[in-house]
Amino acid sequence: MERKMFMLKRFLCIGTAVLTALLSACTANKDKIDISEIGEGLTIYSFSAGKADAELIYSEDWAVLIDCGEKGFGKEIVAYMEENGIKKLDYLIITHFDKDHVGGAAKVLKECEVGTVLQSNSPKEGNEYENYLEALDKKGMTAQTVREVLNFTLGEATFTVDPPAQEVYDKDPSNNSSLITSVTLGDVDMLFAGDAENERLAEFNANNDKVYRFVKVPYHGHWQKQLKPFAEKIKADIAVITCSDEEPEDEETVSLFKKCGAEVFLTRKNAVIAKCDGKNIAAEYEK
Q1: How far apart are CA 7 and CA 65, in angstroms?
Q2: Where is the signal peptide (predicted)?
Q3: Nearest to 74 by CA among 118, 111, 115
Q4: Position 103 in a domain
Q5: Which residues pair with 176 in a beta bridge?
Q6: 3-state helix, strand, coil in the chain (%, to 5)
Q7: For 158-189, how does the pLDDT look when each residue is reduced to its tens digit (9 = 90+)?
Q8: What is the largest CA-CA distance in the chain?
Q9: Does a structural domain hold residue 10?
Q10: Which residues pair with 281 in a beta bridge?
Q11: Around Cβ 169, how many Cβ atoms within 10 Å?
């Protein structure tokens, strides 16, 4: 009798566990929205630019480019804009002046109509930076160095550009001077973290109380200790890591964002397209 009762309890426990797992799987599938179900709003195109950043955020009426990849990549950005009927960049944001972020800026400035250029406060010597300055000069433009939180609105979307708290950082001064940009459309917040490293992330973590449905993961997915509180706070549904086969993402970073509930996309596999209608957001690799 006791053995029968034991076996019955064991069967019930196993059955409960299986049922819970099935319900969880069903819930996950139900909650996941296909990109084809997203209505009108904005598109985020994360270029497959190697270990470099270039993210184009746009709607029918406006466009913002965050970083430009390495030297020579500007032509890829210009080609995508032409193919998608994007005739003007309302804002070009240079998060910092490493060559894998500013390298393609000269070409973009030369070939595209650009309204406003926003830049980091930490210049960095190099050919790419000099080419960028020369292109600005030829265009008759002066970039705005962001030293205080800056907000602007395009259509229904609100952008917030958050500058570094310090003028100079002792460690990794260029990356830690990254501008961090957030975009809000309706109920959805999206985050673009440049190459922020530990000091910069610690600043952001201390002041952030938002959940971001989308995040461009900082510093190409390299593991750093401040990523854990960062990922746990923002609770992203979608995490995009800009990386290459030669310089891939750290597995610990991927595991962290997955554990925090994100679907992780790697630009070394292909470009990533995300769409947001103000209520929902979804992403997929470019087909």
Answers
A1: 63
A2: 1-30
A3: 111
A4: no
A5: none
A6: 35, 25, 40
A7: 999 999 999 999 999 999 999 999 999 999 99
A8: 91
A9: no
A10: 276
A11: 18
Is residue 253 in some structural domain?
Answer: yes
Can you tell me whether residue 202 is helix, strand or coil?
helix
The token pair at 133 is: 């300055």
Determine the residue type at 279: K
pLDDT tens per residue, range 226-277 = 999 999 999 999 999 999 999 999 999 999 999 999 999 999 999 999 999 9
Residue 105 domain flag: no
Residues 6+ apart with CB under 8 A from 10: none
What residues make up the domain containing 44?
A: 39-67+75-95+113-122+142-285
Structure tokens at 284: 């997929």
CA distance 91 to 183: 13
How many domains, the chain?
A: 1
Q: What φ, ψ does residue 219 adopt, rounded to 5°?
A: 50, 45
First to last CA, the chain: 61
Domain CATH number, residue 146: 3.60.15.10
Q: With beta carbons less than 8 A apart as the criterion, state whether 130 and 101 touch.
A: no
> Are the C-beta atoms of residues 137 and 196 closer than 8 Å to each other?
no
Cα-only R_g, the chain = 21
Among all chains, which residue has been given the structure tokens 């205080």? 148
